[in-house]
Design a protein that fits this description.
It contains three helices and four strands. The longest helix has 13 residues. Strands 1-4-2-3 form a four-stranded antiparallel sheet, with helices on one face. Helix 1 packs antiparallel against helix 3. It has 83 residues and is an alpha+beta fold.
Length: 83
Amino acid sequence: MVKLNAVLSCADSMTPEVAARLTRLEERYDSDLQLEFNGVRVRMDSLIGILSVPCRRGSGLTVIADGKDEQDAVLAIRAALQA
Protein backbone atom coordinates (compact mmCIF):
# COMPACT_ATOMS: atom_id res chain seq x y z
CA MET A 1 0.00 0.00 0.00
CA VAL A 2 1.23 3.47 -0.92
CA LYS A 3 -0.06 6.78 0.43
CA LEU A 4 0.90 10.10 -1.11
CA ASN A 5 -0.15 13.59 -0.12
CA ALA A 6 -1.46 15.97 -2.76
CA VAL A 7 -2.97 19.44 -2.93
CA LEU A 8 -5.99 20.19 -5.08
CA SER A 9 -4.88 22.93 -7.44
CA CYS A 10 -6.43 21.90 -10.76
CA ALA A 11 -9.79 23.58 -10.00
CA ASP A 12 -11.52 25.76 -7.44
CA SER A 13 -13.37 22.73 -6.07
CA MET A 14 -14.11 19.09 -6.91
CA THR A 15 -16.13 19.62 -10.08
CA PRO A 16 -17.82 16.93 -12.19
CA GLU A 17 -15.14 17.46 -14.84
CA VAL A 18 -12.31 16.88 -12.38
CA ALA A 19 -14.06 13.86 -10.87
CA ALA A 20 -14.65 12.34 -14.32
CA ARG A 21 -11.01 12.89 -15.27
CA LEU A 22 -9.92 11.14 -12.06
CA THR A 23 -12.20 8.13 -12.59
CA ARG A 24 -10.96 7.77 -16.20
CA LEU A 25 -7.38 7.91 -14.94
CA GLU A 26 -8.16 5.36 -12.23
CA GLU A 27 -9.34 2.89 -14.88
CA ARG A 28 -5.80 2.71 -16.32
CA TYR A 29 -4.43 1.05 -13.19
CA ASP A 30 -4.91 -2.37 -11.66
CA SER A 31 -4.43 -1.08 -8.11
CA ASP A 32 -7.34 -0.22 -5.85
CA LEU A 33 -7.31 3.57 -5.53
CA GLN A 34 -8.85 5.73 -2.84
CA LEU A 35 -8.91 9.44 -2.08
CA GLU A 36 -8.91 10.64 1.52
CA PHE A 37 -9.97 14.07 2.79
CA ASN A 38 -10.50 15.00 6.44
CA GLY A 39 -10.49 11.35 7.50
CA VAL A 40 -13.08 10.23 4.94
CA ARG A 41 -12.04 7.82 2.19
CA VAL A 42 -13.78 7.31 -1.13
CA ARG A 43 -13.07 4.83 -3.86
CA MET A 44 -11.72 6.46 -6.98
CA ASP A 45 -13.79 4.25 -9.27
CA SER A 46 -16.91 6.02 -7.95
CA LEU A 47 -17.77 9.32 -9.61
CA ILE A 48 -20.38 10.00 -6.92
CA GLY A 49 -17.85 9.22 -4.20
CA ILE A 50 -15.29 11.62 -5.60
CA LEU A 51 -17.91 14.34 -6.02
CA SER A 52 -18.84 13.94 -2.36
CA VAL A 53 -15.38 15.11 -1.29
CA PRO A 54 -15.97 18.73 -0.14
CA CYS A 55 -12.48 20.00 -0.92
CA ARG A 56 -11.50 23.35 -2.37
CA ARG A 57 -8.40 24.67 -4.12
CA GLY A 58 -5.49 24.28 -1.72
CA SER A 59 -7.06 21.39 0.22
CA GLY A 60 -4.72 18.63 1.28
CA LEU A 61 -5.72 15.17 0.06
CA THR A 62 -4.19 11.74 0.41
CA VAL A 63 -4.06 9.38 -2.55
CA ILE A 64 -3.98 5.74 -1.50
CA ALA A 65 -3.20 2.80 -3.80
CA ASP A 66 -2.88 -0.90 -3.17
CA GLY A 67 -1.78 -3.23 -5.95
CA LYS A 68 0.93 -4.10 -8.41
CA ASP A 69 1.16 -0.64 -10.02
CA GLU A 70 0.44 1.37 -6.88
CA GLN A 71 3.44 3.70 -7.14
CA ASP A 72 2.68 4.73 -10.72
CA ALA A 73 -1.00 5.12 -9.85
CA VAL A 74 -0.52 7.50 -6.91
CA LEU A 75 1.94 9.62 -8.86
CA ALA A 76 -0.47 9.93 -11.80
CA ILE A 77 -3.42 10.83 -9.58
CA ARG A 78 -1.39 13.38 -7.65
CA ALA A 79 -0.24 14.96 -10.91
CA ALA A 80 -3.86 15.18 -12.10
CA LEU A 81 -4.97 16.84 -8.86
CA GLN A 82 -2.19 19.38 -9.09
CA ALA A 83 -2.25 20.06 -12.85
